[in-house]
Each structure stands twice: as structure tokens, then as C-alpha cells.
Amino acid sequence: MTKKILSAVVAIALALSVVAPVAASAQTTTAAYTFSTDLTVGSTGADVVALQSFLVAKGLLTIPAGVAEGYFGSLTQAAVSAYQAMKGITPTAGYFGPITRAAVNADEAAMGGVSTTSACPAGYTCTPTNPVTTPVTCPAGYTCTSTTTGAPAPSGTTEGILNITLAATPASNASIRQQNNVPVYGLQFQAQQADVYIQTVDLQFNVVNNGNGGATENPSTLINSMTLWDGSTALQTVPVTTSTFVRDQNQVYHYQFSGLNDLVQDNTTKTLTLTFNTNSIDNSRTVTIQGYGSSSIRATSGQNISSFYDVSGSAYALSQTFLQPGQSTLTLSAASNPLRSQNYRVNELGDSLQGVPLLTFNLQSQSGDSTLLTVNATTTASGTLPTTEYLYQGSTLLQSKSVGTNGSVSFNNLTNAAGSVVPEGTIQTYTIKADFAASTHNATFASTTVTSVVYQTPNGDSAVLSNSVAGVNQYVYTSAPSFTLTSTPTIQITGTNQNGSSTAMTASFAFNVTANGGTLAIPQNSDFTVVFTDGTHFATSTSVNVVTIPNNAIADGSTASVTVTAQLPYSGVPASGLYNAYIAAIHWSIAGNDGITNSISQTYGLDDYKTSAAANFIK
């Protein structure tokens, strides 16, 4: 239940004193500005001020409170890039050059000058109108239009109202060990009757030191900084000091997030979430958060009259307990989708082979975040070792290292690398990739094993994982084919006799084959070994038929589609049972552009060339 407090006296007083639109009160308009100078990051002066004013008026730039105009920084660069994208100017690099300058000058002339301060609420952009109108939340001569729906900002007399409830997430948590970006509180807002703008959120914080007799403390003992979010958009970040929170006469600490102007559109719902970064703590602490009194939330709508909402009390309270970081536990395991062996090609023109995936592995952290310090790995090769190896977390590169003469690599000093933190309760997948020199021996195969991991626990201690995870061989040739399944292999019973017994079963495999570095001979029936099995018995098909399209030799860089059909008759089936089939070997021959012909019976990398739905053969 939301409690809305808006007395007639307050309404009249506000109508007489603060009904004037907040945005319009600080609005000034200049004559059209003509830009004649290129601008980029680091530029300063009047041209930059004018450009920033233009971008603000377009709704593409917001100058943070306390930041002076006149310096071309990353925010201005991003706004210019957004303008370029809007105008179809490429590249959208955020450089203010001749093409962008001409577009801005044309827009300036059409607008008849730009506003030197932002007048539209969040989620709206100002565009000139003719004839001139004055909506409530826009300066004269402009209409505020939603950047998402195109609808104008509310300008009538209808007052919207908010229904406010405690958000479902985050929930109370009695054992938080993380320190960064911890969600601690959330409120859900639903607007009715008209659009509503959330202006201020005033919250009270009660921090109890559980290791000091339950004493109440200044929240700054726990909180290092806090951020209020609208979805993934940070509305306000507050660095916390001992003077950040106001303590009232009842010894209640509170803080007001002000100047938000955050739009909740009519008949829509949004959630504001508060997150903490915490200090290192000596004892566990419990923080209880709720609204601060009857004016916890201030919102405006219609004619910009303020409405106040009370979100204090147990219905809006949420408690979080932060424990001492303590000892986290990290575990190392094989990835759930491990790499398969593949063929790779070193170019006969002398180009090196780069970024070959050698190993994927998982790391999981429990009882707190774990920070990687060192990952030790060893690579073995039948011929030439890789020259360089890379450690990735997802698509993020943590570090690259030269490979030692014995194949060892130590990815160390990872503490500050992006992707080095394994958050509590998560599983993160890491990949080791490698470069091979152009001089790598033909038919080299290599594999990598993670031999140990050193990590830091939340309390700063170091720990060592001594178990290992090994990858499979990856093969490097001067010429070789690559194979790609195009559909799931199938198996079926293809004949029955009068007494219901099966007479034959057939398996089918469809894939593409690409020649790399030479001309690949057309696949023949005898090039494939197909095995049928019920898990106990194994029978090799003697009836294999291959269809290749196009039906000729496969030139370097070309791809052909191949369908392999194998049959096992009654006489070849060892016993009744549920049978699957798989390709056990593929023989291929490729005449390389370097004059070397590779003729290989490949038994590796065929893990997925098997049926998954069994056929029930009855003898």
C-alpha cells in the first residue's frame, strides 16, 4: 500500500511558488551558431561550449552536475558519435570534422539557435515547433518528444500518481561476502493517469556492527560508494564519506538522491535499484534500508506540482548482512562443452597460424569472490611448439605470454586484469589460445594442460589449486580439410520380416568438407569406417555409400556437401538391442600447394559424428 501525502495547503503553496517548469526556468536561447573548426577529444573553448549546447538540446548529451562546459571529453565524443549515427554519417567515431560540422550548421540554422541548458526530462529530446508552444516541461519554442515512443511530454493538467512497492529483487541476504556492485534495495514504481517524473528518493540507513555489541554506526563505516540504477542506467553515483549521510534529531541517518527527473510513463512499471561498494570490514554489519518519512519520494506530473510518497515502515524495509570476506574456495574443472580436435593450416606463403584454441576450462568460486593471481600451463607438441599463448575469459583477453622451450607458460600478475575475478557462486569459462610460426612442421599436433592455479581469497590470502585439466590435440598441417556437421546424424530400422524381426538398420551422416591449402580428392566409400554398437557389441558396416556434391575434386578454399549412408544387415548385427552408430575414421588425401601430399586416416575430432536417438533392432 502506497501512502500519498499531498495536502491542499501544500498544493496551493506550490501552485503559487514552484509551478513554473523547472527546465524552462534556467533556459536561455542563443542565435544560430556557425561552426568552422574541427573538434576532437582535448579541444576546448567557445566552439566546444556551443557544440555541447547543441548536443544537449538534441537530447544526446547530459553535462554532469559540477562539470564545467568547454572541454571535449569522452561524454562529448559519445554524443557526437550518436549524432553521426542519427544522421547516417560514417564512421561514427565522434570526431567533429567537415561532414558533421556541415550537418550541425544546417540543424542550427533550422532550429534558429540552441538552448544552452537541457530542458527536457530524461527520456525526451527537444525539437523546434511552429507555431511556438510552451509545454509544461519544455522551454518556449520546443516540444519534448519521447526518444522511444515519439509521444510528447505531458503538458496538460492531469496529475499522475505512483503506486510504489518493494521490488522483488534484491531480497534480504544474511551472508553477503561480495564487496563491489552489491544490489541491496529496490523500489518498483507504477504510474497511473499520466506520466510521472521521480525527482528525489530519500532513504534511511541503519547500520549495526554485529561484532561490537550491536552498536549503530555511521553508514560510512560500511559503505564506500552507492549507485542508484534505473535498469542498467546509473542515475546517480555517490562516493561516501563520514559527512555523506545526514543524522536527524532521532539519530537516524538518511541520504536524499535528488535531481533525478526520471520518467515513469503512464501505465508502465519500472524499478530503481540501489547498489553498494563496501569498505573492508573487521566485523559483520547489518544494514536496514527503507524510505525516510512521509516525504521519502517526491514526484512531479501534469502542471509540475510536487507529490510526496511515504515508503517508510516495515512494508518497505530490507536488511542485508555483510560478513567478513573470509576464505573463498576455487575449483578447477573441464568445460561443459570441451574443445574437439580439429585440423588447422599453416599457410604455405609463410603466414603464421594465430589464435588456435588449445584448451577450455571452468573456474567456480564459493564463499566469496576469488581473484586469479597465476595460471600455469604446459603445452606438448609432436613437432613445433606454439610461439605465443593467450589466456581469455570469454572474449576478454587477460594476458599473452611467450611459450618456453619446455612448453611451459605462466600467466601471472593477473590481479588487475579484466576477467580475473571469479564472483561467488558463478562458473566462468577460460580459454587458452596459441599462435604457431610459419615454420611449424607439417602434421604437428599439440595439446595444453592447466597444471595449477594460484588465487587470492577475499581477505587477501593466497591459495593454490594443484589439480589439472588437459585439452585434446589440435593438428597443424600445410594443407588439410576441415569438416562441419550440417545436421544431426540419424539411425533407423530399414526392414522387418514377417515375424517382426528387423532385417537391417541404416545410419546417415551429413556434413560439409572444405579444402585448405590444396586440392582434396573426392571422398570414396572406402574412406569411411562406420561402427554400430549397443554399448556392448560393436559391428563395422561393410556397406557404406558416399554422395558428394559437386562430384569432383575439391579445390583449395572450396566446400562440398557429403552424405555418408551406412547399412548393417541382419547377419552383421551381433544381438538384439538399442543401437547407435558413429564414424570411427575418415581417410582423406590432399595435394598441397606446397608440393606435399598429406594422406591421413583421421580418427580424431569425430566425437559429434554419432547418432543420439537409438534404433531398436530385434533379432
How many DSSP H or I helices?
5
Q: Give average pLDDT, whole number.
A: 85
List unreliable stretches of 5+ residues: 1-30, 114-123, 128-140
- Overall, the morphology is extended
| Rg over alpha carbons | 34 Å
Main sheet summary? 11 strands, mixed
Count of all domains: 4
List the helices and strands and how they pair.
Blueprint: E1 3-5, H1 8-17, H2 22-25, H3 46-57, H4 74-87, H5 98-111, E2 124-128, E3 142-146, E4 161-166, E5 173-176, E6 182-192, E7 196-209, E8 215-217, E9 223-230, E10 233-239, E11 246-247, E12 253-257, E13 262-264, E14 269-278, E15 285-291, E16 297-301, E17 305-310, E18 318-322, E19 329-334, E20 343-345, E21 353-366, E22 370-381, E23 388-393, E24 396-402, E25 408-411, E26 421-422, E27 427-436, E28 444-456, E29 462-465, E30 469-470, E31 474-477, E32 480-485, E33 490-496, E34 502-516, E35 518-520, E36 528-533, E37 538-540, E38 543-549, E39 559-569, E40 577-592, E41 597-602, E42 615-617
Parallel strand pairs: 5-18, 20-31
Antiparallel strand pairs: 1-17, 2-3, 4-6, 6-14, 7-8, 7-12, 7-13, 7-15, 7-16, 9-10, 9-14, 11-12, 15-18, 16-17, 19-21, 21-27, 22-25, 22-26, 22-28, 23-24, 23-27, 28-29, 28-30, 28-31, 32-34, 33-34, 34-39, 35-40, 36-37, 36-40, 38-39, 40-41, 40-42
Question: What can be said about this structure in brief?
Answer:
This protein has 619 residues and is mainly beta.
Give an overview in words.
With 619 residues, the chain is mainly beta. The chain has four domains: 28-118, PGBD-like superfamily/PGBD (Muramoyl-pentapeptide Carboxypeptidase, domain 1, Orthogonal Bundle), CATH 1.10.101.10; 161-322, Immunoglobulin-like; 329-478, Immunoglobulin-like; 481-617, Immunoglobulin-like. It contains five helices and 42 strands. Strands 1, 5, 7, 8, 11, 12, 13, 15, 16, 17 and 18 form an eleven-stranded mixed β-sheet that branches. The protein starts with a strand and ends with a strand. The model is unreliable at 1-30, 114-123 and 128-140 (pLDDT under 50).
